[in-house]
User: What shape does this take?
Amino acid sequence: MTRKLQTILICIDDSPSAVVAVDHGLAIAADEGANVVFAHVTSILGEQFVPGDGHAERVPDAAKTELLLEAEARAEAAGIPCKTELLIGYPPKQLALLADELDIDLVVVGSRHLSAAKRFLLGSTSRALLAETSRPILVVPEQVLEPAHS
Assistant: This one.
């Protein structure tokens, strides 16, 4: 017997891979009849080295970014119940804490396929998130926009 997904966390930022993650997450939610939580994290340099209190750091007054408003509109157009979360801190840690707080069944995150050098300098949110949580994670690759050449 398989467990039905009830709540899906879709992690968004301003990258093209986040758009693909939203598409995949909404498609899964529609198939499963699940609710969606969109989360965007405004990062703070060095936050990953500061011990926290074990709770997701939310921006007060239910603030929303344009990214969250657009994602919310797409879910509403598809008839999928959703809510949004704007967090502040180190994205992998904050997303993992939120997933635990909300008892998320699936976390959906995009991947930009950074080169080794860029991944070293910028870090990989999806890779770090895998280390931060034991929740199931779907890492959606950014789609290639140009056809392959033979």
